[in-house]
Design goal:
The chain is α/β, with parallel strands linked by helices and 379 residues long. It contains 17 helices and eleven strands. Helix 1 packs across helix 4, helix 2 crosses helix 12 and helix 12 crosses helix 17.
Length: 379
């Protein structure tokens, strides 16, 4: 297993530091909940990595790339990375001629310098001021696919309010959130952006509540001892809060932010430029893993096997959790909600977290998802 710290070569240090400086207005969010000690997967081959010769004919889609192409993939190690894990374990990347090496990370902003310098080729991340600020300063990172959104049957993010406040009638409407102590992972995170939309429905802003930067696991005891009034949680912590009696699943993201974009797949500029065939093939394998995950939880197809894969690769080891909580949601064709990302950029600007606005439509490049859908069919 690699970590981001172990792949920082001196030749890229100046690039990484420059991008970090460009992203300075963004406060790094708390860790995404992955377990750094959890096992990560590798499909590395003994064959040497090599770029395709420019003059050679494109390989047939029926055959893997030869020689295989090494791809470094940054992950959090959470259930949100499920499509990657399924694609690795089921051999979809290998079938496309790709050797996947996972690199552990703990927050989206910290991935940006490594993408910018080509030290990782692909990253699962979420939108953040750091991403927008880096692109605004000329770093040609591209968002290429969806990696998480609430959907019917996959409503995995919710505002959890202390049970006594709901039972006593103190919190009934969005406007009742005024003045409450509410936990989020941090300013600029996707969860923070979702909370802003809930507050807007009640005529409130983020300044009208007391934001507490707290991890998801730490939010549960804080609700229990009344150090918090509410918390924005994702599964399995939503279900855990309800089971422990410390909170009520009050409003879900699907209710107040339908179509929200919570996770993204991004490509490094060097990967796009130097390995275009691998970039296309990566998306084919990714969407296969994503669709297998959805089929497992929506239709029950190979569900036990998919849960085994998640238990192997994430910190959630209890099989019952996967069967009793709302599973993560994904767009089966990899589409990205550009309008939602525009709204995120506007929020960053209002909150003073944005230095250089970007053309969001130009930031998103769906040609790779389109290629994958052309091969796999539309869902």
């Amino acid at each position: 297993m690699l970590t981001l710290a172990r792949i920082r070569p001196l030749v890229a240090l100046s690039v990484a530091l420059a991008i970090v400086a460009a992203c300075a207005p963004a406060a790094p969010p708390a860790p995404a909940g992955g377990n750094p000690s959890a096992p990560v997967a590798s499909e590395r081959s003994t064959a040497p990595a090599a770029a395709e010769p420019a003059a050679s004919a494109p390989p047939s889609v029926d055959e893997p790339l030869s020689p295989p192409v090494d791809v470094k993939l940054a992950i959090f190690g959470t259930v949100g990375d499920a499509p990657f894990y399924v694609a690795i374990e089921r051999g979809y990347f290998r079938a496309e001629g790709l050797n996947i090496e996972t690199v552990q990370s703990d927050s989206a902003p910290r991935i940006i310098p490594f993408l910018a310098s080509g030290q990782v080729d692909v990253a699962g991340l979420s939108q953040s001021p750091a991403l927008f600020n880096a692109v605004g300063r000329g770093v040609p990172i591209k968002i290429v696919a969806d990696k998480g959104r609430p959907a019917p049957g996959h409503d995995y993010a919710a505002i959890v309010v202390r049970k006594d406040l709901v039972d006593g009638g103190a919190v009934l409407t969005y406007a009742d959130l005024r003045g409450l102590r509410i936990a989020t992972p941090g300013r600029g995170t996707a969860v923070w952006g979702l909370l802003a939309r809930a507050l807007d429905i009640g005529g409130l802003t983020l300044a009208d509540v007391q934001l507490e930067e707290l991890s998801q696991p730490d939010s549960l005891p804080a609700l229990g001892n009344r150090a918090l009034d509410a918390a924005f949680l994702i599964e399995p912590f939503v279900t855990a809060a309800v089971a422990r009696g410390v909170g009520v699943r009050w409003k879900t993201a699907l209710e107040f932010a339908p179509g929200a974009q919570n996770g993204l797949v991004a490509y490094a500029p060097q990967f796009i430029e130097h390995q275009p065939a691998a970039a296309r093939r990566f998306m084919v394998a990714y969407l296969q893993g994503l669709r297998d995950y959805l089929d497992a939880f929506d239709l029950g197809v190979d569900q036990e096997e998919i849960i085994d894969i998640l238990i192997k690769h994430t910190a959630v080891k209890d099989r019952a959790v996967y069967l009793t909580t709302q599973p993560s949601g994904f767009e089966p064709n990899g589409r990205v909600n550009v309008e939602y990302l525009r709204g995120e950029q506007e929020l960053y600007a209002r909150e003073g977290l944005l230095t250089d606005p970007v053309d969001v439509a130009a930031l998103v490049d769906l040609q790779y998802a389109d290629y994958a859908v052309a091969r796999l069919g539309r869902r």
